[in-house]
Specification:
Helices cover 32% and strands 23% of the residues. The protein is built from eleven helices and 21 strands. The chain starts with 13 loop residues before the first helix and ends in a 7-residue tail after the last helix. Pfam families: M20_dimer, Peptidase_M20.
Length: 439
């Protein structure tokens, strides 16, 4: 694993910097390019097959069925395949595929996910192809990413570069809503990250004005629950020393304090929903709230839930401390508490990840493709690669290009599968030929 200082920046990256800046396409790499092109229709057929099986996160049978469809694809490439049951966290499970090569070569972790946001009751269920565009649930996020993974590995096999490679493929079954507790639902992924030198995330490609972009950082995804209380009574006494301000004014003070006191780059803190009254309470699902009361009663309760997204752990700690200080400065006659739930950590930008993008850009130059700039991390959501970011240099956004993820009509540019699989195959082959320095 790469050496890092406390801030999370890489001290030395023999993996990312050891190769020449512009190696030419080799005969083996030309085989990879041609292999991906030749397998295009087969890849589309696989995408159609797995897309037409519903694998919404809570459809455990569907997630397992897609996993069973994928197992022989990896076994045919010489991988040892394991289904890791996750019923103890009320999720279907994860598919891990492992292939051991030269023990001294770069250890590569490829990350994707089987589940989608579309459950069996969604009206959006079927794969539809129109030329080089495919529409269907998960064609980009992330069944398309899985197809890119397999296409790149088949290309390496065709070129003979897979033989010596050390690769673990981790396909989670609950990326869209991770099982709780996170420490258990992500245990195997984190262990794989601790083993790896490099992690590649195969969610969708980021494109700006027709230009492919590199993703070297993603923000965290956390949530908070805010509860305020006040002394209830006749509204004519509101603001008085004996009655105070009530729960709703205290809630408004705190939320406006967040708005005015917290702003900094790459930090957001959305309020998703709220309710106030006498009484007010969260629903059992923590995704709803209800309140009732009268205009002449000082409200006794208010509740709100929201999220918190940060680029670094230091930013998370700083924001949490600032939010807590705002919550604690109560209006007279009120009290407030805030609870945080930390779900997806940030994939912070590092020198090592930027150097990996430079390696990918050297491949782009060799292939005659445009240089990939760095995609703004505030524009990407959280992802499983964030769990391994403290341990391995990483690139995300290695999956296909498309639009409308998480919405009815999600579509993929099928031709983007080709260049993404070619890029990944060449990058992994070059990395696998190297001996990285490890602690």
């Amino acid at each position: 694993m790469s050496s890092r200082i406390a801030s999370g920046l890489l001290v030395g990256s023999a993996i990312a910097l050891s190769a020449p800046a512009h190696a030419q396409i080799t005969p083996a790499e030309q085989v990879m390019i041609q292999s991906v092109e030749a397998s295009f229709e087969n890849d589309v057929a696989l995408l159609e097959a797995i897309t037409n099986v519903n694998s919404g996160t809570y459809n455990h049978d569907g997630v397992r069925e897609v996993g069973q469809m994928l197992m022989p694809e990896f076994e045919a490439l010489g991988f040892d395949v394991e289904w890791i049951d996750q019923s103890h966290v009320d999720r279907a499970g994860h598919l891990f595929a492992r292939r051991e090569g030269d023990p001294d070569s770069t250890r590569i972790l490829m990350i994707g996910h089987i589940d989608t946001v579309f459950e069996p009751d969604s009206p959006f269920q079927q794969f539809v192809r129109d030329g080089d565009t495919a529409t269907g649930p998960g064609v980009v996020d992330d069944k398309g990413g899985i197809v890119v993974i397999l296409s790149s590995l088949r290309a390496m096999q065709a070129a003979g570069t897979l033989d010596g490679a050390n690769i673990v493929v981790a396909l989670t079954g609950d990326e869209e809503d991770a099982g709780d507790p996170i420490a258990q639902s992500r245990q195997h992924l984190i262990e794989a990250g601790q083993w790896a030198d490099v992690a590649l995330g195969f969610e969708g490609l980021s494109v700006v004005d027709g230009r492919d972009m590199g993703v070297v950082a993603r923000r965290s995804s956390n949530s908070w629950t805010l509860t305020t209380t006040g002394r209830t009574g006749h509204s004519s006494r509101v603001f008085s020393e004996g009655s105070g301000y009530g729960a709703i004014y205290e809630m408004a003070r705190i939320l406006d304090g967040f708005r005015t006191q917290l702003p900094e780059e790459n930090l957001t803190y959305n309020v998703g929903f709220m309710a106030g009254g006498t009484p007010a309470a969260l629903g059992d699902d923590n995704l709803s709230a209800a309140g009732s009361g009268k205009t002449n009663i000082i409200p006794s309760d208010a509740v709100a839930r929201g999220d918190l997204r940060t680029l670094t752990q230091e930013q998370t700690d700083r924001a949490v401390a600032a939010m807590q200080a705002i919550v604690d400065a109560n209006l007279p006659g009120t009290d407030a508490t805030i609870e945080f739930e930390f779900s997806y950590p940030p994939m912070s930008p590092t020198e090592g990840s930027s150097a990996l993008l430079a390696r990918l850009n050297a491949i782009n130059a060799d292939m005659g493709l445009g240089e990939m700039g760095i995609y703004p991390p505030a524009l990407r959501g959280a992802a499983d690669i964030s769990f391994v970011a403290p341990y391995a240099d990483g690139l995300a956004g290695m999956g296909p290009d498309g639009s409308g993820s998480h919405a009815v009509g999600e579509s993929a540019d099928l031709r983007s599968f080709t260049r993404q699989a070619q890029r990944a195959a060449i990058l992994m082959s070059r990395l696998a030929a190297e001996t990285p320095a490890r602690d």
